[in-house]
Design goal:
The protein is mostly helical. The protein has one domain (2-184). The protein has eight helices and no strands. It has helices spanning 2-24, 30-53, 62-88, 92-108, 110-119, 122-141, 143-148, 153-184. The longest helix has 32 residues, at 153-184. It is globular, with a radius of gyration of 17 Å. The relative contact order is 0.16.
Length: 185
């Protein structure tokens, strides 16, 4: 009952947040800041997934485990809302479709996705790279940026690739630094 109730509340909150995010992204600077946030979230998700897989972030107590799950859920929800709103770019049918697919994945397929990510760690990296690309695209799509910078398609694609690579490199650097700290303790 708790899972059904929690999933239902999460779905309703996600719908409300996504529609607000879709409207807010039309304002100057919001999409740029949202893109930066998606890049940060991508690095955070990548580092947490890798650290968890390598046993670097054990839960010390029930409350600590609960806190880790809560933070991960909030982070993934924020990421999901911003990514869907950014990809939809004001297209309401695409926004609704993306949200519907997202809710299905989050509610019904999360266990399957967790097993796939545990078995095939490359999926974590591919997901982080996609988020890096979406974050860079959101930053380039900000009304303020678009009014000042006219990039040809290939240059915009190049910046999106740089965003994807930057997320992977930053995630790798954070994990390596934490591994060194973990070994010293």
């Amino acid at each position: 009952m708790g899972i059904v109730l929690g999933a239902g509340i999460a779905a309703v909150l996600r719908i409300v947040l996504t529609f607000f995010a879709g409207e807010l992204l039309a304002l100057n600077y919001v999409q740029f800041i949202g893109g930066l946030l998606v890049l940060w979230i991508a690095v955070k998700l990548l580092t947490e997934a890798v650290e968890e897989a390598e046993g670097l972030v054990p839960a010390v107590s029930l409350w600590h485990a609960t806190w880790l799950i809560l933070v991960a859920d909030i982070t993934m929800s924020t990421d999901n809302v911003l990514a869907i709103a950014g990809i939809a770019k004001g297209n309401l049918p695409l926004l609704v479709f993306g949200l519907g697919v997202s809710i299905v994945f989050v509610v019904f397929a999360s266990g399957i996705l967790a097993r796939i990510m545990a078995r095939y760690r490359v999926v974590i990296y591919v997901g982080a790279a996609i988020l890096g690309r979406v974050g860079a695209d959101m930053m380039l799509s900000d009304p303020w940026v678009k009014a000042r910078v006219a990039l040809p398609g290939i240059a915009a694609l190049g910046i999106q690739v740089v965003g994807a690579v930057a997320v992977l490199v930053a995630g790798w650097a954070v994990v390596k630094r934490r591994e060194a700290t973990f070994r010293l303790e």
